[in-house]
Amino acid sequence: MDETRNGQSTEESEAEPQGLQGRVLRLMDFDTIREQLANNATFFGARQMALNLMPTFDEREVQELQDETADASQMLDEIGDVSLEASVDTSESVARAALGGILTGIDLLAVADSLEVHRRARNAALRAKNQAPLMADIAQVIPDLQELQRQVRSKIGRRGDVVDDATPTLRVLRNQVRHAHEAVTEALNNFIQSTTGRNTLQDSIISVRGDRLVVPVKAEMRHRVSGIVHDASNTGATLFIEPMATVELCNNWRELVLEEDREVLRVLRDLSSLVGVVADDIQLANDLTARLDFAL
Predict the structure, then answer these.
(1) Could you give the CA distance from residue 277 to residue 102 in angstroms, rounded to a whole number?
(2) How far apart are CA 221 and CA 57, in angstroms?
């Protein structure tokens, strides 16, 4: 076993400074300092950088960090505060898209939001390139992904839904779905208001059972209503029946809904594929934007 001059093993002598450093950091309440720093970060990647921060004893690295901090201060003096807020970490979604996964509308919106932050960070730093050349050097490497952002924003609504105009086919299908649903409900309302309906129904309402539109029929009146039983109440006093007169209308409505679902899935798949193609660029932009936000 190798020994140091004072008789300690090499492993012991190496472990002692690490233990000493750990005690010093605890005395400084370094975890709280990092948490406070992270709370001032607005971009998700910068927050993680703050939480992972450790002291460095490399003179060149210390000088680089101090230079970046001074540069960031000059940038803020020149252009004022820069909003780089993006609280949702999109790394997992981007990685999933790169593997061929299909993202939800909410996932895609989060990606688009992060791309907007990348754009703001890049433009802000480049505007101050004379006063903050180090920040500008970082910013100019951020990839321009505005076309992907435009594609997502034009096809995904604020709540994460695929908008009607995402494709010409989708708008047509949604119109057809709406008209088909109106046809079913009109036929059911006609039944409810008929003499048979008034005499056989528990309530004058339309219910849904297993994606089928039904009416609540008194169990003892089952023989008077020709149709398909889809469910029954807990007591058995009510049967939820789809009248035969509306079966084909409901079939047509459900077939159109399924077509609409397939078209929506196609839009999500196409957008997810676009994200996957530039996944490396998005990750690079995330890293560089985090570095800028951390310095600021």
Answers:
(1) 13
(2) 86
- Contact (CB, 8 A) for 256 and 141: no
- Within 10 A of 224 (CB to CB), how many other CB atoms are there? 11
DSSP state of 142: S
User: 231: part of which helix (H) or strand (E)?
Assistant: strand 227-232
pLDDT in tens, 153-209: 999 999 999 999 999 999 999 999 999 999 999 999 999 999 999 999 999 999 999
What is the per-residue pLDDT for 105? 97
How do strand 207-209 and strand 227-232 relate by DSSP bridges? unpaired
Please count the CA atoms within 13 angstroms of the CA of 67 that sit on its side-chain side: 10
CB 45 within 8 A of CB 282: no
Instruction: State the average pLDDT over residues 4-19.
Output: 45
Residue 89 token pair = 């970490």
255 with 249: CB under 8 angstroms? no
